[in-house]
Write a structure and sequence with these properties.
This protein is mainly beta and about 150 residues long. The chain has a single domain, classed as glutathione-dependent formaldehyde- activating enzyme (gfa) (Alpha-Beta Complex). The protein is about 10% helix and about 35% strand. The protein has a seven-stranded mixed β-sheet with strand order 6-7-8-9-4-3-10. A three-stranded antiparallel β-sheet has the order 1-2-5, with no helix packed on it. The longest helix is centred in the last third of the chain and has 9 residues.
Length: about 150
């Protein structure tokens, strides 16, 4: 698994493995990411679903995003750790939370989205491209451009 990575929840009941390296990673400062993370933003990796396997019981909370697409946030029902999500507008992709990685250095963020919603106490990284909301063409165009 030279290009892949592993991760899981706090209690170890949920584990996952990716057979491929992330296509990209991004910080998201939207309200839903802030509230579901318990801090100022989430950092998500983007990988093809075909290269992703998870074990253990994962509970999902579905909520429409600004785009109208439904984001399904997966978490461990035992310890509550956020583990990964999916997005109905990006079928075939999985978005593991960087906070759930076994090796945190796998995450190499390349941008910040929803920067206009960043909390003053969690500033946007000035060394990364940032977007007030999402990049032109939406997330799909960025993912396709990175692969």
């Amino acid at each position: 698994m030279s290009d892949g990575f592993t991760g899981g929840c706090l209690c170890g009941a949920v584990r996952y493995e990716s057979a491929v390296a992330p296509q990209l990673a991004a910080h998201c400062h939207c309200v839903d990411c802030r509230k579901s993370s318990g801090t100022g933003h989430c950092t998500h990796l983007v990988i093809p679903e075909a290269g992703f396997t998870a074990t253990g019981s994962v509970k999902f909370h579905d909520r429409p995003a600004d785009s109208g697409n439904v984001v399904s946030r997966g978490f461990c029902p035992n310890c509550g750790s956020a583990v990964y999500s999916t997005n109905s507008g990006l079928p075939g992709m999985v978005f593991p939370r960087a906070s759930s990685l076994d090796d945190l250095e796998i995450a190499r963020p390349t941008m910040s989205v929803y920067a206009s919603r960043a909390a003053s106490w969690d500033p946007v990284d000035p060394n990364l491209p940032s977007f007030s909301e999402v990049p032109e063409g939406g997330p799909k165009s960025v993912i396709e451009g990175a692969s």
